[in-house]
Each structure stands twice: as structure tokens, then as C-alpha cells.
Amino acid sequence: MEATTAARGRLTAVLRDKESVTPLELFFDLVFVLALTQCTAMMADDPTWEGLARGLLILGVLWWSWVGYSWLTSVVDPEEGVVRLAMFGAMAGLLVAALCVPDAFGDTALLFACAYGAVRVGQIVLFMVASEGDAQLRSSVLGLAGSTAVGVGILVAASFTDGLLQGGLWALALTLDMAGPYFFGAEGWKLVPAHFAERHGLIIIIALGESIVAIGAGASKVVDMGVVLAACLGTLVAAAMWWLYFDVVALVAERRLSNAKVGREQNEIARDSFSFLHLPMVAGIVLVALGLKKTLEHVDDPLKTVPAFALMGGAALYMLAHVAFRWRNIHRFSTQRLVCAVALLALLPLVLEIPAAVSVAIVVIALGAVIVYELVHFAELREKMRHQLAHEEAG
């Protein structure tokens, strides 16, 4: 009897009591590295508009499965009791889904849908355990279970189709699955703000790491001066994207989330700013990685239309996501980042005519110009914000 009570206690008393991301969560996120790599490789092998659309749909589905566990581990401690074992099981399911990515619209479509469904079911089950005794959280979990069932069911149905119909079903599944939180409300969810923000910051780092991996994967066997130059420029692109997020934006976003009223207000900010708006950031980084990979393959030749769009459009999408992110958090408009995004898209016709390495240099200049502008025009605010936050964390 005592053993049963103790086991039940370990199963139900797993509420999170610390703000920092745990080693197990970092271990879990490593599977997402493979998922990002697979999406980039898939689009690189099929550099068409159709291939690009498929890659982004797969990325969206995998992202939503990761988001589910970011919410879950902000409620429960992933390293306590059976939750640890369940996390390992979810890793296995996500790994299988990632392995299916290259042919997720073909022979492995059904296996992908089933693996994705298994990952989501594991999340729902753990949430049901964590919500015992909490009626509001239990209600939200049941709503999530409904939208999850709809999304997974449509993906399974899509596996028996092909062509435009299959793509349309994938888009419908992702839309309905991600729209679920709007239908059943945000009041019941729980989260630890500092942990939640840190977890999303780390996934941005993982995505940026994929852009570095893409540089290595795209490099030819002969490492000449052109490849060296392009690789250095690609690293500068990744560094600029890191700066644009982590220099101030991530700090302000975490503070805004932490200061929000617990409950609906805080949960809606977490949902919109992190679960939703981090997806276009990650998608933008993945598209840039595709452009960098193709650049390293043919440094001196112009990029073809789709890779050129991936490079310029990916960087633009990343900047536009930042504009929306800033507006959602503090209701302020980032004109300079919007101008940068528009300029990058406007330069696309030029990129089709110039060497690929020069195109990467243009992205470096565009992103660097925004960084310099913000360093100059917001110097006092930036220093105050960084030092104030650092002081508060130290205190």
C-alpha cells in the first residue's frame, strides 16, 4: 500500500519548481537538431517551390510537437519519476518522425503521421497526470487533446493521398492543430516564465547551429579561397541573427512574460510570442541555411531562383517575425527591421544575377546595418536594459 502511494506521488507530484532548463530538456532538444537538418536536406535535394512548401509544412508539424513539450516541461519536472522515461519515449517518437522527413510525402507518410501522433499522445497523457486536482488545467488539456486528434487524424488521411490534395491536407492539419489553443482558451495553462523563455531561446540557438552545419554540408571537397570567404560570410550571417535576438530582444521578452499577470494574460503572451511567432523565426533560419548550403556548393555562380528566395526571403522572414514579436510584447513597431526585410526581398532580382558569395555578403550588410543602427540610436536604452536586467538577476 505504501509503495503504491509513493509511486502515485512520484507520478503526480512532478510540478516544476526551478527556472533553469534541465539537462534532460537539452538532451531532448538534440532530436530537434536532426529534424531541422532533415528539413534543410530535403529542400536542398528538391530545390523547387513544391519542395520548399513541403519542407516548411514538415517543419511546422515538427515545431508544434516540440512546442507541446516546452509547455509540458514548464509544468512538470522532466527529470522526476516516470516523466523521465516518458521523455525518452517521446525522443524516440520524434526521432522516427525526423527519419521519415525525406519521404514524408511519399512512402513513409503514414509512419511519419503515426510517429507524430505517438509523440503528441505522450504529451497529452503526461499533461493529464499533471492536471490531476486542477480543473482549469484539465479542461485545457482536454481541449488540446481534441485539436491534436483532429490534426493527427488529417495527417493520417493525407498519407493515403498525393499531390496538391496531400499538401492541402497537411496545411489544414497544421492550421487546425495550432489553432486549437484559440478555441479552448488560455486561462488554464501553467508555466514558469523564465524557463519558458529560456527554452525558446535555446531552440533559436539550435536552429542557428543548423545554419553552421549547412555551411559544412554545402562546402565542396576543394576548400579554396572562395569557399573560405563564403563560409566566413555565412558565419557572419548566423552571428548577426544571433545578435538581433539575444542582445536585447530575448531579455526584454523574458521580462515582459515574467511581469505579465499570471493566468490568461501571461499564457496568451507565451502562446503568441513564443509558441507561434518563434516558428517564422526558426523557419527563416532554416531557409537561410538552405541558401547558405547552396552557396557553398557553387560559390562563384548565381543562386537559382528557389535557393535565392530561401536566402533573401528567409532573412526577411526572420526580420518580419521580430517586428511582430516586438509588437506583441511591448506594442512598439520596429521600423528599421521592417525596412531591412523589404530591402532584402527587393534585392532578390539582383541576387539572381551575381555570384552566390556576393549575395551572402549583401545579407551580412543588411543585417549588420540594422545592428549598427540600433546600437547608435538605442545605445542608452540598450545599456540601461542590459545592465538593469543583469543587476536584477544578480540580486
Description:
With 395 residues, this protein is mainly alpha-helical. It has helices at residues 2-12, 23-45, 49-72, 82-99, 109-130, 135-158, 163-183, 193-218, 225-246, 249-259, 264-276, 278-297, 305-330, 335-346, 348-351, 356-377, 379-394. It folds into two domains: 19-190, no CATH class; 194-395, I/LWEQ domain, CATH 1.20.1410. The protein contains 17 helices and no strands. The longest helix has 26 residues, at 193-218. Mean pLDDT is 88; it is low at 1-13.
Taken as a percent bin, the fraction of beta residues is: under 5%
SS summary, helix count: 17
- Could you estimate the helical fraction of the residues in percent? over 70%
Question: What is the total number of structural domains?
Answer: 2
Which CATH architecture of the largest domain is right? Answer: Up-down Bundle
The largest sheet is: none
Shape: globular
Total count of strands: 0
Q: H/E series, N to C?
A: HHHHHHHHHHHHHHHHH
The Rg value, from CA coordinates, equals: 21 Å
The top level CATH class name of the largest domain: Mainly Alpha
Which segments are poorly predicted (pLDDT under 50) over 5 or more consecutive residues? 1-13
- Report, as a whole number of angstroms, the end-to-end distance: 46 Å
